[in-house]
Amino acid sequence: MPVPILKQGAILIATVQAALSDSDTERLRDDLMEQVGRYRAQGIIVDVAAIDVIDPFAARSLQTIAHMTRLRGAATVIVGLQSEVAFAMVQLGPAFDDMNTALDLEEGLSLLRRQLVPNNSTIGHDGGG
Q: What angle separates helix 22-39 from helix 56-71, to the nearest 10 degrees?
C-alpha cells in the first residue's frame, strides 16, 4: 500500500497508515527521494503514529531515509513514535541517535521551521509552492 506524501510549502509529509512490508518501505524511500528532487524539498516529516510494531528492516529504513534525504539537502523528522516502537529502535543500537524525532506532526513542523527558516521564509506555508 503506497504511503501518501503531501507537499506543504518546502516540506514533504509522508503519513504511514499501517505497518509496511519491505517492498512498501523501499517504495516510500524511493518516492521520497524522487519528490525531494522534484520539489526541491528542504524538510521531510515521516509520521509513523499508526505503527505500533516495527521490525529491524523498517527501523533501519527510517534511518536510511533520514540519511539519504540529508545528503540531498533536506532535513528529516520522524514523528509519532509510539513507546513500543521507540523501545524497539533503542534495542537496535545507537545508530538512531542522530535521527531527528518529535512527538507529533505539529512539533515536527515546528522543529523543521526552526531549522530551516534562514533558508526559506515560506517553509510549511501554502504560499511556498
A: 10
User: What letter does residue 2 receive in the DSSP assignment?
Assistant: P
Long-range contacts of 114-120 (CB under 8 A, 24+ apart): 115/43, 115/75, 116/10, 116/42, 116/43, 116/75, 119/42, 120/9, 120/10, 120/42
Helix (H, G, I), strand (E, B) or coil at 15: strand
Say which residue the cell 503506497 belongs to: 2
Comparing 65 with 127, which gets the higher pLDDT?
65
pLDDT tens across 31-42, in order? Answer: 999 999 999 999
Collapse the DSSP code of 20 into the 3-class scheme (helix H, G, I; strand E, B; otherwise coil) and give the result.
coil
47 vs 64: CA distance, rounded Å: 15
Across all residues in the chain, what is the average pLDDT? 87
Q: What angle do CA 45, 23, 57 make, to 5 degrees?
A: 70
* Nearest by Cα to 53 from 78, 89, 79, 22: 89
**pLDDT tens-digit readout, 86-103:** 888 888 776 667 789 999
pLDDT at residue number 12: 97
